[in-house]
Write a structure and sequence with these properties.
The complex is a heterotetramer of chains A (683), B (316), C (219) and D (499). By secondary structure, chain A is mostly helical. Chain A has a domain of 60 residues. In chain A, 70% of the residues lie in helices and 5% in strands. Chain C has one domain. Chain C is built from 9 helices and no strands. By secondary structure, chain D is an all-alpha fold. Helix content of chain D is 73%, strand content 1%. Chain D has a two-stranded antiparallel sheet with strand order 1-2. Classes of the chains: A mainly alpha (683), B mainly alpha (316), C mainly alpha (219), D mainly alpha (499). At the A-B interface, helix 16, helix 17, strand 5, helix 22 and strand 6 of A face strand 1, helix 3, helix 4, helix 5 and helix 9 of B. Strand 6 of chain A pairs parallel with strand 1 of chain B.
């Protein structure tokens, strides 16, 4: 038994332990015991993932009663790429488990909640370890059921939870069915259900195209791309925060993993339209996601939409890579794929912190509406610091992981091939979209941090907030440290990504050539930076930081000198905008913050506005009260899903009329069937 | 003297030059405006005097404000970093920190974020309003910046600004190519928008409903206000210098020589002065746009940049 | 029995079977229907008997007696009593009026001929040539089930259908093995008995045996 | 082996007679459970015996009045033994879990099992199903299946009210008419053998390639037989009796009907399919079964979506699963058939559990309307948890065995070039999933206080152990490769799926 196999089995065993602890432990100890076991499972996932990423191999297989192959087994056999994602899932899971020790009270800390969390994480960590179709689908569905239970965990508290859970369950099942069909096509075309055999089989032609489309839709649904993203803005807000963190930071990434797995390993070297398909999904998602995020005031909904945006960015990098590969530009292909993986890791890091931070806010204030938060930097300094760092990451500002990742992505784009007509027409548009996305992301996260933590408390909950307990602050601070560390030393991520792609055989025209090119295209530059020798660019955030410190130092010195002579004076009112400064109604809210943007994108967002004017009784010319409501629906949901659901329901009602209870009608069904069979057979 | 040390020295010189001249440039612009409007004006050194005054005053802090002191320093640091990164005097850059376009834009945005947070931190309605508008403009500006510089970088094949400037020096014809002109115009509009000049924002107004920049710093006082103002001037100066260098790259040091550096400094001062004066005289004839028509302006500049990219494909 | 005579008897029995089935569609009186059913049972029994005699198969003759006992005697008696017990006398308003039903039976007979093409094969013998009649009886029985509102009428339709099947079995294969035949007859009898009991309960619970009352269970 | 077969058939009959005659009610409560155990034990014994001899044609018991020419009327091979074991297992779950505890009085959905006829009918029902599994003769199989209608008629109408009576009437008439059509088919199959001079209804002989058969007659006969049995199997468009009967029968009876009665009829379809395929190739049966399967899924999807009644919802879910089985049978091949056989077991275990729970919910809540039940998880966790678990298993979430079988059926479908049918089926499955999930969530989740029920909350009772065991089995049999895999492989081989 190799070390890797031990690691895989250890994850299973620890998951079992966690479930046992969740079910059997007494209530006060449950979060500690179950969370502890889950934490260990996450760590074992990290270790196993690291081993796999390092190139260790191992196979764990289980016999099945009915399987797809001749020997009916399901196998876990992670490769390097899988190792990276397992590491990611394990790390996010471990941080979330740590957080859950402090957070999981109430429904999320119930027996079911704790057990489902362990199952969810187990599925999550094993999806990238799967070595064949059945194992993949099985772990995928474990992930689905675990997360569905968790999304529904707080069903007793809010009514929206049920509809969120339903949307989630249905969309998850949609994803599963597409994957099932896609893998079925693949299995049939490749005469095997094992990934290794499929990769060796070099499937091509129509079947490959069909499989690619089916799988891409399936994975896109999980990844939350427009227009199959609708579950995301519903499920993320309603799930307990540590669950939303894992869902957003790790589970959604399994969709990314699936796409990368498909285009690099199972179906490498696809035609150019594949890249265009992915691009066509990715760019609108990025833009739509961030646009919705920038105008919403529900913090967790904002974060959910931001996930759609980030996955859009990640997949646009994958698409660039595919396009470059199909036109033979292996250096750009490699860099773009590395950028995709770096973005993935970076998003995982900062989104974990953001969701956990949002959970902390929820915990402390019982509010997740930004309009009712505010001033929390004073009462929750540690959470504020961590959240702020993560916001910087989300806005891709230096020196965070997000910045380095987007830099690599931009480099890939700038050097994207302009030899063919279509790509050269698309690339500037792609760059513009990404740039607008980045700009809106900046606005969004300035809003998220500024409105939530600065100014004055806008609700009683925010006024009486207090810092959350230790496991929770520890979890967010660890996450924030990771965001910074990966930002200062992006070479780590870049090297890991390049290594992961080595086994995958990277996108591309012909396996071996591009494999080396991805490795050659990426290297650690001086220090911990990232260098792209393939396209001649390098970045060293550490040096940048030093330079920044060097130029800021004199400023600080001068400030210090001035401060010694003229200390700051506390006053009740500085300028105050008319003296009503102390009212919590005065600071700008998230809604008002986003108002200019809503106006700019009025056509795209189509908000529903409701203006009510109450006149004074004495005269219609005197206004007593004016109330203004603005509501922003998800337009895709409104114009695509709602009519479809309504149509289905109508069809269901019609069908029920058919089954009207009349004996004669039922006999008629049989009679017609008999006649049809008789005639058909005689024919 | 090794190349690195020389480069660092030059960077220091560049920073010092802009630090010294940024307030003068503001003074110059105000003076030009005043004269054109038939006023005497306060003289070109007035901004320096203002700064000195603000440094001596004690800053005030209202309850609830947490970052009133830190954010201005951060803003100042970001602006200085921006200056240090841009290829204003020379095309050789620090090896470890290339003046990559994306890095430059990020640093610029870091400053933008710092000032927006300052506005939000104050907790007043005006602060939030200013921050909101400021961020909206910034978000809409970003595509134009990136696409414009992308257009400029296509012929060169790199996103390093110094490489772009250097290439334009080597091939002066590219400066007047349609790509370049379109991109420069787009970039210029963007700089105007980002730094809060007319017609996007009026730097000299305190009319509540229209202001952007001033709304955010209403609550700042003393040295805090001083830093914020200084940083803003610095940013505008740096960006104007960048545009000037892209439009007219002559004078920038390619081969290190003391005389060349001196020439470069003089050239830079001249370019910025001319550009600043031009803007100031232009502003006399402009009124501020309605806030919600600003996106139209930005969309226009974006289209220009986009056309520049397309043009670059045509010419290649 | 001569070959021609055999064919003659076979033909007339088949004729009686189809005729009684069609008449069922026409008749409204329940007691009349029951009588027709008994007649049909007798014809079926005669048919079996004829073939049994022709083939000199004692087993078939035994089956003929069994069928006579069950279908011509037992079931009609049971049905007659049920009809009397439930007080239903007439099938007043069938779902399709008799004229349409009669015309429909003509269509069904055509379908039966069409459908029996593969069954007949290339060279059908005298017995096989009557198979379409059997299928027609099955279809008409089904039509009865479909159009009649009275519980008893449905029972009658069911038995007619069953008679048709028995006829086909006889004509195509010379009947099924005895053990199966016994089981089948027993089953049919039991189904009729159960339906009779249920009819009684319907009368008790609903106050009538009109099947249109049975529409409470629906979606 | 013959002794086992006779025991399996004889004991239920004996138990039925005894409980009919017995005055002691304490004893008769358990008669059906004993009969189930008998079926299970004899099934397993036969599985072991057929497996150890590895003979597809095993010794057959000949009845005293046997008039068949070859073989016997009763016969046990791997398939029938496996199916018998399934019957036993499912029946045990249903009868054990359906056993109401003594403290519960007369309520809307409990039956006093002490009533002799109830037990007797259940035993006879089990006996009939056993006979259907063990009969080698298609005619006898038909008789046995018709006998299931007869024995269950009164069980469906047990409550004796209007609705129950209506359900029973519909069940008997529609079922009998349908099965009559099947008999017509069997008759024609029998006629097909007369050409060869050796008329037989033995399934083994019919499926034997050397048997001289008239292909035209087999085509018509098989089509009619499948159509007829499809009625009992609940395949659309012959399904109409099913929702009524399942929603009105006592929980244990619906459980049995859904869990095994449907699969008994389906077993007949499988056997007839083998006969047809051996002679005519897969095309004719595939067309019929595909149509039936897809129609069933369509009907299930359409009617589950806005279904107001949860017992009917479960009935339509049974139709869905039968549709899946039909699809699997249409696809054919070892993978699909193996999956079908395993699916029968998995569905057979999960569905009775959920029917029993639904019965308890009806008792506790006093309504079978979905909008009449709220917040069950908060108010009645002992009902909601097994309900949710069984529903998750039925929806095919792993580790439920249904997950594996559905994957296998879909992949096999694509293998056989039926991708379009699979695409349709998957779409319908999504709708069904959404519908079932919607109703389940609305029933079980939500706040506790929003109850609309006027009735005082009744503390649910009844055995939890059988439910737990059944659901645990559903969860593990997907992985229990060792013995079960061989058994299923042998059974598939019996159905001619070796190629």
């Amino acid at each position: 038994m190799s070390l890797l196999e031990v690691g895989l089995v250890a994850q299973l065993a620890l998951a079992l332990l966690a479930v046992t602890a969740a079910v059997a432990a007494p209530t006060p100890l449950r979060p500690l015991l179950a969370g502890g076991a889950t934490l260990l499972m996450g760590l074992s996932g990290v270790a196993t993932g690291a081993l796999a990423l390092g190139g260790r191999t191992g196979i764990v297989s289980a016999p099945l009663t009915v399987g797809l192959g001749l020997d009916a087994r399901m196998t876990l056999a992670p490769d390097r790429l899988g190792g990276l994602f397992m590491l990611l899932a394990g790390a996010v899971g471990a941080v979330a488990a740590l957080y859950s020790v402090g957070y999981a009270r109430g429904p999320a800390g119930s027996r079911t909640g704790c057990a489902a969390f362990a199952v969810f994480l187990l599925g999550l960590q094993l999806v990238p370890a799967s070595g064949d179709v059945v194992a993949f689908l099985l772990t995928w569905e474990l992930m689905a059921i675990g997360s569905t239970i968790l999304v529904l965990a707080e069903h007793g508290r809010r009514d929206q939870v049920r509809s969120a859970g339903l949307w989630y369950a249905a969309m998850t099942h949609l994803s599963f069915l597409f994957l099932l069909a896609g893998f079925a096509v693949l299995t049939v075309a490749g005469h095997s259900s094992s990934f290794a055999a499929l990769a060796a089989g070099r499937i091509s032609g129509d079947q490959a195209g069909l499989a690619f489309v089916l799988l891409t839709i399936g994975f896109a649904t999980k990844a939350g791309l427009v227009p199959v993203h609708v579950w995301l803005p519903r499920a993320h807000p309603e799930a307990p925060s540590h669950v939303s963190a894992v869902m957003s930071a790790a589970m959604v990434k399994m969709g990314v993993y699936g796409v990368v797995l498909t285009v690099t390993r199972l179906l490498p070297g696809g035609p150019r339209w594949w890249g265009l398909v992915v691009l066509a999904l990715a760019l609108p998602s990025a833009l739509y996601g961030i646009l919705q995020a920038s105008v919403t005031s529900d913090l967790k909904r904002l974060l959910a939409y931001s996930t759609t945006e980030n996955v859009g960015l990640i997949l646009s990098a994958v698409a660039i890579s595919m396009l470059a590969a199909s036109s033979g530009d292996s250096a750009v292909a490699g860099v773009a794929m590395v950028a995709a993986l770096m973005l993935t890791v970076s998003h995982a890091a900062f989104k974990t912190v953001l969701f956990l931070g949002a959970g902390a806010l929820l915990h402390a204030t019982a509010e997740r509406d930004l309009d009712r938060l505010g001033g929390l930097v004073r009462s929750m300094p540690r959470t504020a610091v961590a959240f702020g760092v993560a916001c910087l990451g989300a806005a891709a500002l230096p020196v965070t992981s997000g910045f380095a990742a987007e830099w690599v992505l931009m480099q890939a784009r700038i050097h994207g091939d302009s030899r063919d007509q279509l790509t050269s027409a698309l690339l500037p548009a792609a760059i513009a979209v990404v740039a607008l996305t980045a700009g809106l992301a900046l606005l969004t996260f300035v809003k998220a941090f500024g409105i939530a933590f600065m100014a004055r408390p806008r609700s009683p909950g925010a006024t009486t907030a207090h810092e959350v307990n230790r496991p929770m602050t520890a979890a967010v601070l660890i996450g924030a440290a990771a965001v910074l560390a990966l930002g200062l030393a992006p070479g780590l991520t870049a090297t890991a990504a390049a290594t992961a792609l080595r086994s995958a055989g990277v996108v591309g025209a012909v396996g071996a050539a591009t494999t080396t090119s991805a490795a050659a295209a990426v290297g650690t530059g001086a220090g911990w930076g990232v260098a792209l020798p393939g396209i001649g660019a390098h970045l060293d955030p550490l040096a940048l930081t030093l330079l920044a410190l060097a130029v800021t130092l004199p400023v600080v010195l001068v400030t210090w000198l001035l401060a010694r002579r003229h200390p700051r004076r506390d006053v009740d009112l500085v300028w105050g905008g008319g003296g009503v400064r102390t009212s919590p109604r005065m600071p700008y809210t998230a809604t008002s913050f986003a108002e200019p943007l809503v106006r700019v994108f009025d056509d795209a967002l189509q908000p529903t506005r409701d203006l009510r004017v109450t006149h004074a009784q004495e005269s219609r010319y005197l206004v007593q009260e004016v109330s203004f409501h603005q509501h922003l629906d998800d337009r895709v949901e409104k114009s695509l899903y709602r009519p479809a659901i309504a149509m289905l329901d109508r069809a269901g009602d019609l069908a029920r009329l058919m089954q009207n209870g009349s004996m004669h009608r039922y006999l008629g069904f049989s009679f017609v069937a008999l006649l049809v069979v008789l005639v058909a057979v005689a024919w | 003297m090794s190349a690195t040390v020389t480069t660092m020295l030059l960077v220091a010189v560049q920073c010092g030059l802009l630090l010294a001249l940024a307030p003068v440039r503001v003074g110059l612009m105000r003076q030009v405006r005043a004269r054109l409007e038939g006023r005497a004006g306060a003289g070109v050194l007035q901004p320096w005097r203002d700064l000195a005054k603000l440094a001596r005053k004690e800053p005030l802090r209202a309850p609830g404000v947490r970052f009133g002191g830190a954010l201005p320093v951060l803003l100042m640091g970001a602006s200085l970093l921006l200056v240090a990164l841009l290829p204003l005097l020379q095309t050789a850059t620090l090896v470890a920190v290339p003046d990559d376009l994306f890095v430059v834009v990020s640093v610029l945005l870091l400053g933008t974020v710092a000032i927006a947070l300052l506005g939000l931190d104050s907790g007043t309605a005006f602060g939030g309003m200013g921050a909101s508008r400021h961020m909206t403009v910034a978000a809409l500006v970003e595509p134009t910046i990136l696409v414009a510089v992308y257009a400029l970088s296509i012929p060169v094949g790199t996103s390093n600004l110094s490489a772009i400037v250097s290439a334009r020096l080597d091939h002066p014809a590219t400066v007047v190519a349609p790509v370049s002109l379109l991109a420069l115009v787009a970039l210029f509009i963007v700089v105007i928008a980002e730094t809060g000049r007319l017609p996007v924002d009026n730097p000299s107004t305190h009319l509540e409903l229209t202001m952007i920049h001033e709304a955010m710093i209403l609550e700042s006082s003393g040295r805090d206000l001083g830093w914020v103002e200084y940083a803003s001037w610095l940013r505008l100066g740096a960006l104007l210098a960048l545009v000037a260098n892209l439009a007219a790259p002559w004078g920038v040091v390619q081969h290190l020589h003391v005389l060349a550096v001196l020439i470069a400094m003089v050239a830079l001062v001249l370019k910025v002065a001319v550009l600043g004066a031009a803007i100031a005289s232009g502003e006399v004839f402009l009124a501020k746009l309605r806030l919600f028509r600003v996106p139209e302006l930005l969309a226009g500049s974006f289209v220009l940049a986009f056309l520049a990219v397309t043009a670059s494909y045509l010419t290649v | 029995m001569t070959d021609a005579g055999f064919t003659q008897v076979l033909g007339s029995c088949a004729g009686v079977l189809i005729l009684t089935a069609v008449l069922q569609l026409w008749r409204r009186s329940l007691s009349g229907s029951v009588t027709l059913l008994a007649l049909q049972g007798a014809a079926l029994s005669a048919l079996i008997g004829t073939i049994g005699v022709a083939a000199a198969d004692p087993e078939l003759i035994g089956v003929a007696v069994l069928v006579l006992a069950i279908k011509a005697v037992a079931i009609p008696i049971v049905l007659g009593r049920t009809a009397a017990a439930t007080g239903a006398r007439r099938e007043d308003a069938p779902r399709i009026n008799p004229t349409a039903a009669l015309l429909l039976s003509a269509v069904l007979t055509t379908v039966a001929y069409l459908a029996s093409r593969p069954i007949l094969g290339a060279a059908p013998d005298a017995a096989q040539r009557a198979v379409p009649v059997g299928i027609a009886v099955v279809l008409i029985g089904f039509l009865l089930l479909l159009t009649r509102r009275q519980a008893i009428s449905q029972l009658i339709g069911f038995v007619v259908l069953d008679n048709g099947i028995a006829m086909i079995a006889l004509l195509t294969a010379g009947g099924v093995p005895l053990v199966v035949e016994l089981g089948v007859s027993l089953d049919v009898l039991l189904v009729v008995l159960i339906l009779r009991v249920l009819t009684g309960r319907l009368k008790h619970v609903f106050g009538a045996t009109d099947l249109d009352d049975l529409t409470e269970l629906h979606d | 082996m013959a002794a086992v077969i006779w025991l399996a058939l004889g004991l239920p009959t004996l138990l039925a007679t005894a409980s009919m005659l017995s005055r002691r009610r304490r004893w008769t409560r358990y008669a059906a459970i004993i009969a189930s155990v008998v079926a299970l034990v004899s099934g397993i014994a036969l599985v072991v015996l057929t497996r150890s001899t590895r003979a597809v044609t095993s010794t057959a018991a000949v009845t005293t009045t046997a008039m068949t020419t070859a073989g016997g009327i009763l016969r046990a091979d791997s398939l029938s033994a496996y199916m018998l074991a399934v019957v036993g297992l499912v029946a045990l779950t249903a009868t054990w879990a359906g056993l109401p505890s003594k403290d519960i009085g007369d309520s809307s959905d409990s039956v006093d099992p002490g009533e002799g006829t109830y037990s007797a009918l259940l035993c006879l029902f089990l006996g009939a199903m056993t006979l259907a599994r063990l009969a080698d003769n298609l005619g006898v199989m038909w008789v046995a299946i018709e006998a299931t209608t007869i024995t269950t008629a009164f069980l469906v109408g047990q409550h004796g009210d209007r609705r129950a009576l209506e359900a029973a009437w519909k069940y008997v008439v529609l079922g009998s008419v349908g099965v009559s059509i099947a008999f017509l088919g069997i008759v024609l199959i029998y006629a097909a053998t007369t050409a060869g001079g050796a008329p037989t209804l033995s399934w083994v002989l019919l499926a034997h390639p050397a048997q001289p058969l008239d292909p035209d007659l087999i085509r018509v006969g098989a089509a009619l037989a499948v159509l007829g049995f499809a009625t009992k199997a609940g395949l659309a468009p012959m399904h109409s009796w099913l929702p009524d009967a399942h929603s009105q029968a006592p929980a244990a009876v619906s459980a049995l009907m859904s869990g095994v009665l449907l699969s008994v009829a389906f077993y007949a379809i499988l056997r007839i399919r083998t006969i047809s395929d051996a002679l005519l190739g897969p095309t004719p049966m595939r067309g019929m079964l595909l149509t039936g399967g897809l129609l069933s899924l369509l009907v299930a999807a359409a009617l589950i979506l806005t279904q107001p009644d949860y017992k009917r919802m479960l009935a339509y879910s049974s139709i869905e699963h039968m549709g899946l089985l039909a699809l699997g049978a249409a696809i054919g091949g070892p993978l699909a058939i193996g999956a079908v056989l395993l699916h029968i077991l998995g569905h057979g275990l999960a569905k009775p559990s959920i029917f029993v729970v639904a019965g308890r919910i009806l008792t506790a809540e006093g309504t079978s309307r979905i909008d009449g039940v709220h917040g069950l998880l908060a108010r009645q966790p002992r009902l909601a948890v097994p309900f949710l678990t069984a529903m998750a298993a039925l929806l095919g979430f792993p580790p439920s065995v249904l997950f594996f079988t559905e994957v296998a059926i879909v992949v096999a479908g694509f293998q056989q070039g039926l991708g379009w049918a699979m695409a349709v089926a998957l779409t319908l499955l999504l709708v069904i999933f959404a519908g079932l999930a919607r109703h389940t969530v609305n029933m079980t989740l939500g706040k506790a206080d929003s109850t609309g029920s006027a009735l005082p909350s009744v503390r649910p009772s009844g055995a939890m152990i059988p439910l737990g065991l059944a659901l645990a089995l559903v969860a593990v049999i997907g992985f229990l490769a060792g013995p079960l895999r061989d058994v299923i492989a042998l059974a598939v081989a019996t159905l001619g799926g070796t190629s």
